Amino acid sequence: MRRSQSLTLALLALLAVAAPARADVFGQISLASQSTVSEGGSPPQQADYAHDPAISGNGRYVAFDGSFGGVKGVWRRDLASGEVLPVAVGEAADAALAAGDAELPSISSDGRYVSFTTTAQLDPLDDLNSSPDVYVRDMDVPVYPVEGAHPCGSAASCDTPAAPGAFTLASAQNGRASGLAYAEPSSRLYGAVAAGRSALSADGRKVAFVTTAVSNLDGEEAPETPALQVGVRDLDAKTTTLASVRYDSATGLPAVSASGREEPVSGSEGGTTFGAVFAGASPPRFLPPTQYGLTPTVGASISADGSTVAWMGQDVGAQVRTLAGEELRPHYAEPLWRRIADGPQALTRRVSGGADPASAACVSSGESALTQPPTPSDPCEGPFVTEPLSGIEGDPLVDTTPMLSANGQTVAFLATAPPFGEGSFGLSVASRPSDLYVSDMSAALPRSLALRPLSEIAGADAENPATDAAIVDLALSPDGTEVAFCTQRTLFPLGTPAYVSAPAASVGLVELFEADLADETLTRVTRAFGGGEPEHPHKPVAAGVVPYTQFDGSLSPSFSADGLTLAFSSTASNLVYGDGNTPSVESVGFDGSDAFVVSRETFGFEPPAQEVSAAPPDPRLAPGWRLYVTARSRRDGTVQLEASTPAAGTLRAGADARMGAIARRTGAIARREGRARRTHHVRRRAGAAHGSARPRALAQTEARADARGLVTLVLKLAPAYRALAAQQGGLSAIVSVTFSSPGRPTLHAAMPVTFQTAAARRPSREARMRRARASRPTRGGGR
Amino acid sequence: MRGDAVTTICLVAVAVALGAGQARAVIEPAVTIDGPSEAVVGFGGVAMAQDGSGGLAYLKRVGGVAHVFVSRYLDGRWLAPIQADLGQPYAASWPRIAAAEGGELVVVWATPFATEKGKTIDELLGATLGPGASSFGPAMIVDPDIRQGIGTSPQLAVDSSGQGDVVYRVVEEQSGQTSSVPLLRPGDVVEQVRVAHFDGELWSQLGAIDRDPGVSMRPPSRLNAPQIAIAPTGNGVVVWQEPEIDGVARIWARRIYGRTLGYVMPVSASALGGAPLTGDDDAPSLALSRLGQAEVAYRQAAGPGSPLPGPRVFLNTLPDGVSHRESGSAFQGAIVADSAVSGGQSAAVGPPSVDVDERRQVRLLYDSNGLPRVVEGGDRGLTGALTLGPDFAGAADSSVSVMNPNGGGVSAWASANAQGRPAVAVREDFPSGAVQTALVGGGAGGEVGEVSVGRSGLGDGLIAFEQGPLGNAAIVATEATAPPAGLILSAPSNWVRRSQARVSWEPASSADGPLRYTVVLDGRTLPTPAAALQMRIPARGLGDGAHEVQLLARDADGAATLSQPSTLLIDDEPPTVTVRRARRGRAVAVRVRDPGSGVDVVAVRVSFGDGRSAGARKRFVHRYAHAGRYVVLARVRDRLGNGALVRRVVTVR
Fold first, then answer.
1. What is the ipTM of this complex?
2. B395 touching A, CB under 8 A?
3. Rounded CA gap, A467 and B351, in Å?
């Protein structure tokens, strides 16, 4: 296997430089809402509580709202240094800069800019009301020119603004720095708000916000723009764009007023004026973070590239193209999407809903109303089963803000309506729990094909949170391939994404899950540091009763740009070791929520080295110390010896014969061979005459055996005896073979041989018979 | 599936590597069958048949759904993994594999099929990959209701023909639920241990086999999973853990005769030296010899007041019943396998792995305070224990042992290399006494999970394991082959002429074929035709005398075994004739000798040259009447027909 092994190793070495693999496995959860920068040897300080975390695209910073040492507001944690800095907090030397109600941060990709909502007039020159407004803090600019040095000396309060550029008012009028004017400027409940996590573009220069009060967002001086409009502020250009523009069905374009301004959405029913953004019965009030729950809010998302805005729309008929026969009441809600980068003419589009009038098939069909009963073959049918009164989202308690991918092409959203063909399980749209969906906004895709459900209720038991708990929060990774969401649900019956984690044994806190659309898996992210279920102390409850509310647990997920790190908040007290801010069961002050980060495991590919010792040697072939020899007479009068030697050594072979008895017969031959030989033979003949036939060495040879094996030797008669090999019967002799190897006994072998040339061989019996037949006279010839 | 690219490349790499030529090796470097990948989410063991074929099973996500994949091991190569649960829409769990000869594989797994009160109900399914088939057949129901598939831990065994049995657990009520059975210990569950039989085509349930449905069981874990083994006869043995009524968990066993269950036999010792053993027994390991002798090793905890100084591994034998002296229907009695465990009550003893061969030799491996200890024994008791090599390491103190019927065996356990990185230590002890060791791993390294072994019964082991953390796990396999065994070489028992020198041999036992045979003559290898089982010995160098002939069998991995020498008697020379003249007088002595096959006395005829002749003897003494020169002609022949006419001239005075 050595060849293949080395080939494998070579290939694996090539693979070692491959990109590290990311897996549906998340590492240990770590606490983000704590400062690990020790001051004067003091231990790390953990937040009293922390909500609404948002992680920067580079994964280094987490902004969250909460309280540190009793100081409330928005903070930013540097995950690299452990330092926590105030973004906009309540305890400012200058009371005007105290922003204790600042909340719902979004953070730019590099962590420099943080948007949030506060009633504090952090830019008192432009912010002239006490209504909630949206600000962007530049963390590179200290609040005071010299951080820590109070411009008003020791005064408890002064109206000195912060250093220029530290806070920028985002909910401002188009073309001006001055803030929006609201109908009720003294209200601290209504104004403009920005969604947490998704309100800021990656460069931190564009902010999406939603007005919750009648304002002058349309550019007029007087606040006449109905509430619940979507605005986008370009901080560099100091422009504010109305994103939620009324759709003019007559022109098929965004409506423009006589003054040339884009018209906001303004519908009314029963004396209630409806804006563009779904908010239930009325705009939510601006409130501090809710204990063990979601802060009721509205918002809009802006894509990281600043090109696209999405919101959960109401009065949909006023914002997008609908079928003529499509009766949509103002309450009807659908996620809406607008690519503002395409300019004022860009139309707002329906992400997913009860009809798809913009699809090419529907347009070409000429339909003006959906067929009844609904059928999937209707080219204008939308992906959801809806009712005129309720769109696809009917739960104003959850954060219904759709989330956008970095390029705005993918939208993740919640919907309570059942997808077409799923069935309603007998539940009305309003009472169904929210499920999670993503939709591809490619224009060529019919909405039904663009939709992908990521969750599905596992039954129709509204009382069973294991199957029917709502999805209460969500996040979409910048590349649109991962969706994080929060729910108490423990059963996920969809085949894809397949739920690949061990499910909780019973319903507990709201947990964080992550759907990986690339490999179709659904992973449970939250777990206690010891491996158990996330939990926090609670009052005793009866068996079978879930002690936690549907918003108690993990919320506010957000992805870093690479999708590898998730930030989220949780009220669980056992996600990390040493979570020290859990309030007692009896306390009512705060919920002990914290901000956490958790990273997806990434794995390198370095094949392990293997060690295999040498295989045992082959069995030793150990022959006996013996010599075997075979002999074969050859036609040329020589004898060939084949010796099997047991080792390397020297082989010597010699042929002997007693010559006395036959020497006389060879005398004539010897005489013909000359004098010298004759002399020799005479001597032998003399010996024979005396009857003393002696052994004569007829032939000798020698060879070297290099190793154990066969060695071939050829014995050739000495010239004096060669003629004898030609006699009939040849010359018989005894061959003696010796094998010697240093240090080993010499081996001997002996055998009779005959030196015999071809002429001396006795004809075969057949040849003799043939000859006899040839010499016999034929019968006829005899006569 | 971000790791797909890497995974694909890796698989290609492995495929290329596996397809490359083979050379000398016995413990192969481990190969990564699949991964490292987030898609690899479970391991279902490895199996091997006597012919060396086998396979391994694991769980791999496709479209996010875990499915059973199998890599077949055939002709010494791991083939590309194929899906076993074809057409199954839901996630598979608890895969397990068994191997029959010819590459046949049987796989079982659990998968959801219904919901009941909001909880999924699983069924146990099985599928077969027939010999020569390239895809698994349709899934067949083994058990339609295994409740929620908790702790199912199926164990599967098939015989060479593909018939087999599976044992598995069905947890009916978990701790915390309202129980219909009094719970003997906190955390106990109500469960059944069930067996199903596979006749090669269909599964049939044999039902619950546990002793007492009225007792609760310990919560299911890997360490108390039931075990099953099957002999070539098709009969099997199943062992499981079940508490006695006093709450102490013991090990029990039953024989299975096809579809018929034998009665329950206690395996555990309940007392030692008269003192009761009050600690739970767990981690049963089962091995079955070809004739049906069962060896069960298990771990005995040392409870309060226990006569044991600490936890110990016990071994018990259920004889095969072949001998009249031993009953095959009762265990002989559990004994402490290795008493040399330090640490007293705090000693850490891991789960044992036992194997037994056809000669009833036993080999047991376990973790003794982190040391891999192997215990060997036979019919006459245990013969000794040995510490093998590097310590156990990692969370899974998993080990496997393989008995080589010709001596020695293979041991493998979770360990670490010199840098402290997780690896699997493999050690092969050869019949010759030689040892080979290895530290193997695969994928991207990382923690080693359950180490599984498939045994050929001939001393070979397929060793496979999951390595790496969840999300980057890989399925890794290696092979430790035993050298060929059972070499029988036949040579002529009598003297033969060179042209009749022919040897033959029986095919050797090996799971790592095809074997290559080489005839060895006097320590010299002879060119031997491939696939031949007989050969004529070339005449060259095949001199007269006693030769030593052996057979060298080499398996596909290059491991070789040399047979015991046989003697080949060659006699290709005629008898020798010596004619000696007496020192005095006119007599000559003629002697005919043949050191090989012997002189054919009847064929001997000597003419003395004076008109007299004699024959039918080996020795002649002839006295000439007159002085002179005479030509003595002797016609001789040995018993093989090697004849000669020898002419000698003698001069007498």
1. 0.85
2. no
3. 40
